[in-house]
Design brief:
With 439 residues, the chain is an alpha+beta fold. The protein folds into three domains: 123 residues, Alpha Horseshoe (Serine Threonine Protein Phosphatase 5, Tetratricopeptide repeat), CATH 1.25.40.10; 150 residues, 3-Layer(aba) Sandwich (Rossmann fold), CATH 3.40.50.10070; 83 residues, Thrombin, subunit H (Beta Barrel), CATH 2.40.10. Helices cover 50% and strands 20% of the residues. The chain is built from 16 helices and 14 strands. The strands form three sheets. Strands 1, 2, 3, 4, 5 and 6 form a six-stranded mixed sheet that branches. A six-stranded antiparallel β-barrel has the order 7-8-13-12-9-14. A two-stranded antiparallel sheet has the order 10-11. The chain starts with a helix and ends with a strand.
Length: 439
């Protein structure tokens, strides 16, 4: 930013057209650098010197929108769209931001017109193409949304944003074409909605309190706040990518996104209701999820700040928090990798898999846990033995269990797994308790 500021300041001192370009650039730099007053003052200067250039009106609109002055922001975006001078990207951006504002105020048809104009000016401006797709999603037109995302990918096959939206749209299109699956989904949605309304959202109770069930997590859509991001659907992309990564680990099971969205739609739960912690917890229990992820995405000039909380639905306690600054225009893979790693570490430490030795075969044992519970090849377990209690002043104090053996999983089936014993202090036997090691 400092380097850009120096370059634009140099241009601004030259006078003429260079001065206009320099001050236009400085207005953008100041807007991104949390100096809105300086940005607005320079934008006003540029308007006076070059009234046909509209990009400074986009800068003004973005600042006003972030200040929740949406009517004034709309007026600036409309001004920008009526002006004819500027680089192709700048001219595309003015239509895009007006389209984003229309989309956020339920004027989808007008929004799509703006996105089409943006792409007509700059065919490489895939932001407008994906934004158009998101408006179609909101109307349930998944096949048309998918066509938009594929158009964006045809221009830039490496765009992770469009790719994530396309995968999600493909899933929804496939669901709509599979009559049997759609019918089952409809029945499940109705059943879950009825249970939510009747407050019967308790989790499943198991006969075996020691052996683990799957660690199920569901995400509730994050609220997007602050400024008007250039790309719509940022929170959807983040949750889609994060869900894919966690599911791929095999350790955590993510509630199907399509099911969550259908239930929320059936219950007519908007963002304000989802922000209520009690509602979020109730939804988590409804989906038999031990954990629920919720939070917000705050759009700032310099980037977007993701604030996420993971809540235990049984205790209502917050078990993990994540605060990350993301760049919507760049790759978020590195930050998502870190979040994924942190969440898996938390799950293994706070919700370790527990089970029993079902059979001993020499130096190999069969466990009553498998892929359905989250066991993967390489998972390590301790064999636990209850310690002798301590009697003190008429009270018996329980001793911490002792690890008498260790093992590592070598093969996994849906309901059981085989492990190789790597250390043991005594012979192992059927019904020995095992617990996952976090490291």
């Amino acid at each position: 930013m400092k380097e850009a500021e120096a370059v634009f300041a140099g241009l601004a001192r030259q006078g003429g057209e260079a001065e206009v370009l320099g001050k236009e650039g400085l207005a953008t730099v100041y807007a991104k650098g949390k100096q809105p007053e300086k940005a607005l003052a320079l934008a006003k200067e540029v308007e006076g010197k070059a009234p046909r250039r509209g990009y400074v009106n986009v800068v003004k609109g973005d600042i006003l929108y972030a200040q929740n002055r949406k009517k004034e922001a709309e007026a600036e975006y409309v001004k920008a769209s009526s002006r004819t001078e500027g680089e192709p990207y700048q001219q595309a951006s003015r239509y895009n931001q007006l389209g984003r504002l229309y989309s956020g105020s339920d004027r989808s048809g007008k929004a799509r017109d703006m996105f089409d104009k943006a792409v007509e000016i700059d065919p490489y401006y895939i932001e407008g193409t994906t934004n158009k797709g998101v408006t179609l999603e909101k109307e349930g037109k998944w096949d048309q949304a998918l066509a938009s995302y594929r158009s964006a990918l045809a221009v830039n096959p490496g765009d992770a944003f469009a790719a994530a939206l396309a995968r999600r749209a493909e899933e929804m299109v496939a669901l709509s074409k599979d009559a049997g699956r759609k019918e089952r989904m409809d029945r499940l949605v109705k059943d879950l909605a009825d249970r939510f309304r009747s407050r019967k959202a308790e989790g499943i109770k198991r006969d075996d309190e020691w052996s683990s069930g799957p660690t199920v997590l569901t995400f509730v859509d994050f609220q997007e706040k602050g400024g008007l991001a250039e790309r719509d659907g940022f929170s959807t992309v983040l949750l889609t990518r994060l869900s894919e990564n966690l599911n791929a680990s095999g350790r955590v099971k993510i509630v199907e996104r399509a099911l969550v969205e259908r239930v929320l739609e059936e219950l007519n739960l908007g963002s304000s209701k989802l922000a209520d912690p009690e509602t979020a917890l109730k939804l988590g229990k409804l989906f038999a999820a031990r954990l629920i992820g919720t939070g917000s995405l705050l759009h700032l000039p310099e980037g977007s700040v993701l604030s996420m909380r993971v809540i235990d639905t049984e205790t209502s306690g917050i078990v993990q928090t994540e605060i990350r600054t993301l760049d919507p225009s760049g790759s978020v893979d590195e930050e998502l990798f870190r979040i994924n790693r942190d969440m898996l570490k938390m799950v293994m430490e706070k919700y370790p898999l527990r089970g029993f030795v079902a059979k001993v075969e020499g130096e190999e044992v069969l466990l009553n846990l498998g892929a359905k519970q989250g066991v993967v090849k390489g998972t390590r377990f301790d064999v636990l033995e209850e310690g002798a209690g301590i009697a003190y002043k008429g009270k018996k104090l329980a001793a911490a269990p002792k690890a008498v053996a260790q093992m590592e999983i070598v093969s996994v089936e849906p309901e059981f797994s085989r492990a190789k014993v790597t250390r043991k202090d005594r012979p192992l036997k059927q019904d020995d308790k095992v617990q996952e090691r976090a490291n």
